[in-house]
Design goal:
This is HEAT repeat domain-containing protein. It comes from Arachnia propionica. There is one protein chain. With about 300 residues, this protein is mostly helical. It folds into two domains: about 5-165; about 185-295. The protein has helices spanning about 15-20, 35-50, 60-70, 80-85, 90-110, 115-120, 125-135, 140-155, 160-165, 185-195, 200-210, 215-225, 235-240, 245, 250-260, 260-275, 280-295. Helix 10 crosses helix 12. The chain is globular, with a radius of gyration of 22 Å.
Length: about 300
Amino acid sequence: MCTEDEFGAAPPWQDELIALARNITQDDDPPRSPEEEAKELAGHQRLCEIVYSLNGKEGPAAIRSLLLAVHPIEHYEIYEAIYSHLAVYPAADFGRVAARVLPEWLETNGIHPNISDALERLTYDDRACREFTTCAKEWRSQQRELVLDAMRLWSHESQHWETVFVALGGEVTEVCLDPVPTGWPEEWKWAVELFRQDGDLQLLRWAMDQKPADYGPLLAVLELDHGPSWRGIRRLIDLFLSSRERMRLIPGFVAVLEEQPRERQDRVRRSLERVRPGAIEHLRARYEQFRQLEGLS
């Protein structure tokens, strides 16, 4: 049984670590005084001091404390100390504690990449994964659905999570490899071939910057299914958000998409939705935030 008692008492440093890990200035926070900044920096150093003092022999309670110190905030690589140090604990303990903590973490914080980063060991450590899936049998149905929703998203973002997702009973997305139409312009063909070679976005990036009114290569890549390379589509969404100039292209892209024949629209939207549900709405919302910040009419 994966009961709370097997973890033992919380370590004496738990509350301090959780508080320190929460005290990270976010982009939208008001400016801090030099004294506050110095105190925060000292806190980050203290966090690392606590983490690096652990040797992996503290037991399951320490693993739980480290995971509870992961908050759904931008951490600017400060959490990397926690992520890397979780590897020093026995695989079986890590898997059992992860199965206990993950549903509760998601219930409190929602789906967030920080917790998937903290639990990445499950994707490559077979013993940890086995213990995790064994203990997962004790989840309530609501907890199971919550975790499956999270892992479905994580497996869309990274193939590494597919093994864990499938072990929990999830079904992976099967994507075919569409042939490139022979009648397409050469530039469109090049964009697709480069994309399928390790997700190369060089031509698309160049087209966005040098020919901003030409969405042909981008739509060409989006309307095809790319087999094992399908996850790379998410990077195209991120490409729009990578600079002010590209952010300004979002309304034009959406307008051009809506002018396409319905069948082509559906293919493009399916490709986007596969990697990020609500992708078009997400781009629109991000552009609206950008427009307000920039004072654009």
